[in-house]
Design brief:
mainly alpha; globular
Length: about 350
């Protein structure tokens, strides 16, 4: 194991320990948190289970929009298995992508379609990661509760989203523009990786050109379906947080739905940095401090955040393990031809 990986693992472990052993107990005593959890009524428990099931069920449609031919059950099993990996493995996002590729290849999908689907679902997810803080700032400003930290995150989000969207649109306009945008993006990413003492990216403008040829027709027919499906999948997770807050008796008078959305949007953006698997420690601490800062009761907010994290991680890990054991039943009846891999757009 390289020194860099060791340092990342140690840093991640330190973040987790510091969050649960030092920071959260400082915010609220775990005894008080448990007392709040024990007061959950049967009605709230049923509603929490329902919104959790919904958040899992809606993870499949984005893949169905991005990968023609994949069925709902396949998509659901794939998302649960790969998300479970990303939650428990350091650098889990890369491991999840690799697993998606391997599983889809065994299921008989060709490399070009797999590359396109992985790229599009990832891009749409990142678009919303950047868009939500911007939307949160507008909503908070409308209610007179804007925060400086979120405004900064939104400013960064506007800049990055503008650059990404501009490059994406230009890349889809023509082969020449796709090649030029790809070459520029490759140079910028290679420069950024060099600052981290890492090698150049393995893709260039030709990769963008091939992606345009592959993705252009699909997006013309399905961009709206992919957008709606991705939006619903993302917001369903926020609904779990909002219901958790109300179930643990954090009323709108303490933390409004807009404030909860703002905290969730900011932490979702921060958790995209792969410091710990699944953002463990970062999400809990970020959500707790934000929600308490908006006026939520310390113990009840910590209880709500921990319930939210339990509901959005544990079922997926369990279902992911079950799905991994059943993936082979979707294997094609005939061997998959050995099609050369298409260049990917990731680092």
């Amino acid at each position: 194991m390289s020194l860099r990986r060791i340092l990342l693992a140690v840093t991640g472990l330190a973040v987790v320990v510091a969050t649960f052993v030092f920071f959260l107990p400082t915010i609220a005593d775990y005894g008080d948190v448990w007392e709040a959890v024990k007061q959950l009524s049967a009605g709230w428990i049923v509603l929490l289970v329902a919104v959790t099931a919904l958040s899992i069920a809606v993870t499949a449609p984005p893949w169905m929009a991005a990968l023609p031919g994949i069925r709902y059950v396949q998509s659901l099993e794939l998302t649960q298995a790969t998300t479970a990996i990303s939650l428990v493995v350091p650098g889990g996002t890369a491991a999840g992508v690799a697993t998606s590729w391997a599983v889809l290849r065994k299921w008989g999908f060709v490399n070009r379609d797999i590359t396109r689907a992985i790229t599009l679902t990832s891009l749409w997810n990142q678009f919303f990661n950047l868009l939500f803080p911007i939307l949160a700032v507008f909503l908070l400003t409308a209610t007179g509760a804007e925060t400086a930290l979120l405004a900064t995150a939104a400013f960064v989000g506007v800049a990055v989203l503008g650059v990404v969207l501009t490059g994406f649109v230009l890349a889809l306009m023509s082969d020449r523009l796709a090649r030029d945008v790809g070459d520029l993006a490759a140079r910028l990413c290679t420069w950024a990786k060099a600052k981290l003492h890492r090698g150049p990216v393995p893709w260039n403008g030709v990769s963008f050109e091939r992606f345009r040829d592959s993705a252009g027709e699909l997006l013309r027919r399905r961009w709206h379906v992919l957008t709606v499906a991705s939006l619903v999948a993302s917001l369903s997770v926020f609904v779990v947080l909002l219901v958790s807050l109300r179930a643990l008796n954090v009323p709108a008078a303490e933390v409004s739905a807009v404030e909860a959305f703002a905290a969730w949007a900011l932490v979702r953006l921060l958790a995209a940095v792969p410091i710990t698997p699944g953002g463990v420690g970062i999400v809990e601490l970020g959500l707790t401090t934000s929600l308490v800062g908006f006026g939520g009761d310390n113990a009840r907010v910590v209880a709500a955040v921990l319930v939210y994290r339990l509901l959005t991680t544990l079922p997926t890990i369990v279902l992911g393990l079950l799905a991994a054991a059943t993936l082979r039943r979707h294997l094609p009846s005939e061997p998959v031809p050995d099609v050369p891999a298409a260049p990917t757009l990731g680092p």
